Each structure stands twice: as C-alpha cells, then as structure tokens.
Amino acid sequence: MEKRKIFLKGLKDGIPIGLGYFAVSFSLGIIAKNGGINALVGFIASFFTRASAGEYGVYKLIEKAEPYLDIVVICCITNLRYLLMSTALSQKFSPKTSLFKRILVGFCVTDEIFAISSAYEGYLEPAYTFGAFTISSPLWALGTCLGIIAGNILPTNIVSALSVALYGMFIAIIIPPARKDKAVLVAVIISFLLSYLGTYYIPGIKDLSFGIRTVILTVVIASAVAIIKPINTDIEKTEN
Amino acid sequence: METPSIAIYILIMILVTNLIRILPLTLIRGQIKNRFLRSFLYYVPYVTLAVMTFPAIIDATNTPIAGAIALVLGIIAAWFNLGLFPVSLICCIIVFVCELIF
Q1: CA pseudo-torsion sign A221, A223, A227, A232
Q2: Which residues of A touch B51 (CB under 8 A)?
Q3: What is the mean pLDDT of chain B?
Q4: A/B interface, count of CB pairs below 8 Å
Q5: Residue of B nearest to A231 (CA)
Q6: What is the ipTM of this complex?
Q7: Are A13 and A132 within 8 A, CB to CB?
Q8: Distance CA B100, CA B26 (A)
Q9: Do B44 and A99 touch (CB under 8 A)?
Q10: What pLDDT was estimated at residue A239?
C-alpha cells in the first residue's frame, strides 16, 4: 500500500479515538482549570503531552502548588506504561525504519494509539500511526481547552457528571485486562482497597501529597504482585 | 517560598512524558530480560490507574454516593468490554441521574 493510503487509513481509525478523547479531555480541562491553567496553555500542554492519567496527576499537583520534583516523579510513575508500550513497538518496526521515524512514533504513543499501532498487520508503517495522531491529538487538546473555558459556564451538576469521565476511562482501561488475567484483577482490588485506606486511614500515608502517595502505593503494590505472580517470560503473551 | 511557575510545570510534564515514550525506541534494541522488572512494569499501569480512580471518584462528584454508583456500574460496563467512550459516558450519565435523585 502506498504511503498516502496508509496515512488515510490511520486517519480513519483515529476518528473514534479522537471523539473519545474529546469527551474525556473536556473533564481534564475542568481539572486543569482548578490548577489555574488558561485555555491556550491547556491546549498546548495537552497537545504535546497526551497523557490522561499523567496530565490529571500534574494538574492536581499544580493546584496544590507541589514542588517541581513531584511533577517529574508523577510523570514517570503514571506514564511508565508508555515505556513498555514503546518497548513493544520497537519490536514491530521493519529494520529499514529510520531512527527519526521511530522517535516520532514514540512521541505519538498513547494507550489507544499504541493499541491500534500494535494491531497493525505486519511491520508497523509509521504513516499509519501519524494518521491516527493527526486526527486524535488536536481533538484531545481542543477538549482540554473547551473544558477550561466551559468549566465555569456549565451548571455544577453537569460539571460533576463530566468530572467522572476520566475515571470512567481509567476503569475501561484496567477492567478488561483484569477480566482476562486474575493477577491483574487481584492487583486492581488490592489497589482500590489500599488506596482507600491510604487516603483516609493509614497514619503517615494519609498525610502525604496525592502524588507521592500514588507513587508509594504503586511501587509497593506492583512490586508485591510482581514477586508473587511474575508474568510469563514470553514477551508476545504479556503484550496481548 | 517562591510561587512555582505554571510554565515550568507544563514544560517538565511535556519533556518527561515524551522522554519516557521515546527512550525505549532509541535505547532498548533487544528485549528486557529481567523477569521481576518486566512483571513490575506489566502491573504498574493497572495499579496506578486503580489507585488514582478510587477513592478519588467519590470525592469528584457533588454527592459521594453518585460517584460510588458510577464506579460500580462503570466496572460492570468495562467488564463487558464496552470500550473507553461508552464506559466514560455511562459513568457521566449515572452521576447526572443520581444527583437528580439524591
């Protein structure tokens, strides 16, 4: 297939992703606004970051005026999955694919872009990923921007309803793998439980910042599950 | 103490997030062999997202019970693979309806 057709195919597959992004990033905008971020900065920040959980964490930290180091840590923790996704994608390129194009594909990676890129038949054509990026990323940024602008126009019950869109997305990301993999299911249940106890009851943990608490709980729980139930060393099985 | 700058916050976020995405494609040419590290990385997204979702979803809504019901029904919808957008939408509608009732 010629490059232009591959790009258009990516564009087409990116439409549903973009529409989903738009709704979700609108609620992200509401959170960004609470952090004192204006519409233009929100658009730029979202366009260049494209990380739901990561952006959410950062905007929350900005709202609380936490130290810069917390931003670095929360970005590393919430986006660690991109490390795995990019690693998986590095195995999917034709040996002929240039380093520059590999880096650009890496820049495009989100949960959804990774999902359709890794499902591409045969070697990944970077043009396909770029097509999906081209349609979905501006919608992600626009959603954030409009969330910031419309956050104070919309009635509070609408804002309250939209504020759970992001959590809905997180749920949609974690639950299907939890259904397939019992270890993930157990990890999710333990995470809910310890997060609840950690936020309200566990002395020391409940007094920590949102970012650091998230980091500590993640490292402890993920390490424990990794020790108790290590994954199959066959890389193909773990990525699917 | 000096007030932190939003521009620096955003710049750090953009740099760190994209560096994480790009690094493996430039550095890691082969497979990660360490079993613990791979297992840890495998579980991290699920654990982190779960930790960030609960109890935060209950604090996000005007009425905590609305967030709790949205969580439960959202999990059921996701269990049946309804996808990102539908699950998000269901959670929003549930909260809206619940807050009309309660």
Answers
A1: positive
A2: 191-192, 194-195, 214, 217-218, 221
A3: 88
A4: 296
A5: B39
A6: 0.85
A7: yes
A8: 52
A9: no
A10: 44
pLDDT for the residue numbered B2: 59
Q: How much is the pLDDT for A41?
A: 94
Cα dist from A139 to A26, A92, A115, A133, whole Å: 10, 27, 18, 10
Nearest alpha-carbon partner for A183 in B34, B40, B68: B40
The owner of tokens 């909260």 is: B95
Q: Which residue in this structure is represented by tokens 């979202």?
A: A46
pLDDT at A235: 46
Contacts of B14 (CB under 8 A, 6+ apart): A45, A48, A49
A90 residue type, one letter: S
Q: With cut-offs at 50, 70 and 90, classify the pLDDT of residue A238.
A: very low
Q: In angstroms, what separates the C-alpha of A138 from chain B's closest C-alpha? A: 16
Q: Give residues 130 to 169 of A whose Cβ lies within 8 Å of B.
A: 156-158, 160-169
The structure tokens listed for B16 are 């760190």
Tokens of A194: 């310890």
Nearest residue of chain B to residue A33 (CA atoms): B6
Question: CB B40 to CB A16 under 8 A?
Answer: no
